[in-house]
Write a structure and sequence with these properties.
With 697 residues, this protein is an all-beta fold. The protein is 2% helix and 60% strand. It is globular and about 70 Å long.
Length: 697
């Protein structure tokens, strides 16, 4: 993401407790066997099916029903479901995410995104459709998931084909000419084989107005399809094949110029671009997952291939001036290949284990490796600069990993280790420079838990995560930066009582984050802006998270969660643009976040049900930049939903209000060092009302 103005880029409840956490806990071998309740949440956070309550760490599990009822369709929506996380879609359609003060805004990774156990490097901000469950894993996930998971992982578990014929569809219309369609069809094809096809179309006319050219530069259209095939050719053998294709067309880099005030930046929803900006992304992905239950062990093989093509036209002076326009160059395609093979113990004994190997090939992950510039009269032009940014990146990841858990009485002890190697080559053809960075690291994890009651667990864990070092290829410097490393300590309690009607979690954590990678920007000799990732220094985060979910009567669920976070630079040698930052607050790390929901299902007749739901989220004040001179004031969002339909969901009519109080806030903001008191912001969505109709068969 490039900007014409020199800017300084700032960078649960635990499970949000949106649904009951567990059934009555079982002890010993029974806990690993048949589930006592059909509605308890089963997750794959540790790469095997487990009850959520049995995992000794902080995990959020957002079910398909909650995704529908809470209107979760974007990254921004996910970030509001659990405390101590800031998550949204950046204006170049990449993700911004910080969990517990760990992660990054900008071109660094920090938190991994997954589709059916495959890390997603290409379309993390795609619409959330045909999803069975979203799992949010907090804290470093290096042992099982490797690099780029230093702050945590966000996993989408998509719906699989099954042997029953059926389908579903939804149509939605609302403010800003929002039009959303979704449909899916599942069908058996024969003995042990089934297919599921789904598709979606989402459009919004946008809400940022271009006062110069008219229209809305943030207008967006996205559509996608997915075909999944499930085949069980023999007992214990399961083959899942899927292909996805999605296309996104929106403004790309739609920032508004806003004045900063003592109470935060003025909220602005207008721009005066002299260019019709655009960003077009096309993604194709294939996943093949083969599992073979051989009795005492289970073999899993996951192979994936993904390709992204991205074209852009950005107005880099963000104004009516005929100054700088950026175009995508010839190399606008990224390709990713991954391969994972693992062997895990099966059965229900007190000891379980898992070992595996991983390989990934990632070519040209960045969006701006090859960019052309057009300098207009207001920038001393006309001048066309071909291959302004002109570089290749080649990344290879290798890993061996293993975990083991042993239960003795009420105690459970777990340990894991990953040996990981990252080989990164950056080639800058303008210099020309070719630089290699190789990292080899050990990423351990230790856990201990104790069942103090049939449904209540005390736990503690220690984990290390790492983000590999890489090379800057779009700055003209060819400079390399080192890997970053986070050591996390967590202890907590989780469980359910009152016959599963009251679920709760509470955890405290401490994270030591060394050689932290951060994106900075500077002015080249030719007056253009370049970006570079550097290692700033050490930061320390610690805090608390807690939440409750209570079902006082059938059909009524009350949930609330909150988190407190203290995240500071803790390094007297830490420098940002040669300025000490020791003791300052880490960007994008609000001290307090909270969310709550009420969901009430009221029977009106045997075949009719009224649904009422309210969602509330609070984000405390936080800083956008390292210098702590630019900040986002605290804000609160309220969503309401009312529906009527059949209890089994065969049909439903719903009305949903998002940001009911029309709160004004920014998803991104960058301070402009050229103009004191002015910066560029990405405004949050104003109040929106949507009506929908859905049915199942």
């Amino acid at each position: 993401m490039m900007k014409m103005r020199a800017m300084i880029l700032s960078g649960t409840a635990f499970a949000a407790l949106l649904t009951p956490l567990s059934a009555k806990a079982q002890s010993g071998d029974e806990a690993q066997g048949e589930r006592a309740y059909p509605d308890e949440i089963i997750v794959q956070a540790r790469k095997r099916d487990e009850r959520l309550i049995d995992i000794p760490e902080t995990i959020s599990a957002i079910t398909a029903d909650t995704i529908r009822d809470a209107g979760i369709s974007t990254l921004n929506d996910i970030g509001r479901q659990t405390p101590n996380i800031v998550l949204n879609r950046r204006q170049d359609n990449e993700p911004n995410v910080v969990i517990r003060g760990v992660g990054a805004f900008g071109n660094t990774q920090g938190v991994g995104f997954y589709i059916d156990d495959v890390q997603n490097f290409t379309d993390q901000s795609a619409s959330i459709e045909d999803v069975e469950r979203i799992e949010i894993l907090k804290g470093p996930q290096g042992t099982l998931y490797g690099g780029s998971n230093v702050g945590g992982a966000i996993k989408y578990v998509l719906k699989k084909p099954d042997g029953d014929f059926g389908g579903e569809a939804r149509a939605e219309y609302g403010t800003f000419d929002t039009v959303n369609f979704f449909a899916a069809l599942n069908a058996p094809l024969g003995d042990g084989i089934a297919i599921r096809g789904s598709g979606y179309y989402n459009h919004s006319a946008g809400f940022v107005r271009n006062t110069l050219l008219g229209g809305h530069p943030d207008e967006s259209t996205e559509w996608g399809t997915r075909v999944a095939l499930g085949w069980q050719p023999a007992d214990g053998v399961d083959l899942q094949l899927s292909y996805r294709h999605n296309e996104l067309s929106n403004g790309g880099n739609v920032y508004v110029t806003a004045a900063e005030t003592p109470s935060g930046a003025e909220y602005v929803r207008t721009a005066d671009y002299n260019e019709d900006v655009m960003n077009r992304r096309r993604v194709d992905g294939i996943i093949a997952n083969l599992s073979w239950d051989m009795g005492s062990v289970e073999l899993t093989n996951i192979t994936s291939w993904t390709r992204r093509k991205n074209d852009l036209l950005w107005d880099l002076d963000y104004s009516s001036a005929d100054a700088v326009t950026a175009f995508s160059g010839d190399r606008n395609t990224s390709t990713v290949f991954t391969q994972e093979l693992r062997l895990a113990s099966a059965g229900s004994g007190p000891f379980d284990w898992l070992v595996g190997g991983y390989y990934a090939s990632i070519d040209n992950r960045g969006l701006t490796n090859n960019v052309d510039l057009l300098l207009g009269p207001d920038a001393g032009g006309p001048l066309f600069i071909e291959d302004y940014n002109n570089g290749d990146t080649i990344e290879r990841q290798y890993a061996l990993f293993g975990t083991a858990n042993y239960r003795f009485g009420a105690f459970r002890l777990g340990a894991g280790l990953r040996l990981a190697r990252s080989a990164f080559t950056g080639r800058d053809y303008n210099v020309p420079i070719s630089v290699e960075v190789n990292d080899t690291t050990l990423l351990p994890k230790l856990t201990l838990s104790y069942d103090i009651a049939p449904d209540v667990m005390l736990y503690a864990n220690y984990a290390i995560g790492s983000e590999p070092g890489r090379v800057n290829v779009t700055t003209g410097t060819g400079g390399a930066y080192k890997s970053e490393r986070a050591s996390s300590y967590e202890a907590g309690i989780k469980g359910s009582v009152l016959d599963r009607r009251l679920s709760f979690e509470l955890a405290g954590y401490y994270i030591d984050y060394k050689r932290r990678q951060f994106e900075t920007q500077f002015v080249n000799d030719d007056g253009t802006i370049a970006e570079e990732v550097t290692n700033i220094g050490t930061s320390v985060s610690y805090g608390l998270e807690g939440g409750l979910s209570y079902r006082p009567l059938d059909g009524l669920t009350l949930s609330a969660s909150g988190g407190w976070l203290h995240s500071r630079w803790h390094d007297k040698d830490a420098l940002y643009q040669f300025v000490p930052v020791d003791g300052l607050t880490v960007p994008n790390s609000p001290a307090f976040t909270a969310n709550a929901s009420i969901d009430y299902r009221i029977p009106l007749a045997d075949d009719l049900e009224l649904g009422l739901r309210g969602d509330y989220s609070h984000v405390g004040k936080f800083y956008w930049n390292i210098q702590n001179t630019s900040f986002q004031p605290a804000y609160d969002l309220v969503n309401l939903r009312a529906s009527i339909g059949e209890p089994d969901g065969r049909w439903e009519v719903a009305l949903r209000a998002e940001n009911l109080l029309n709160e004004k806030y920014y998803n991104e903001f960058t301070a402009d060092v050229f103009s004191i008191g002015e910066g560029l912001g990405a405004p949050g969505t104003p109040r929106r009302i949507l009506a929908s109709f859905s049915f199942k068969m």
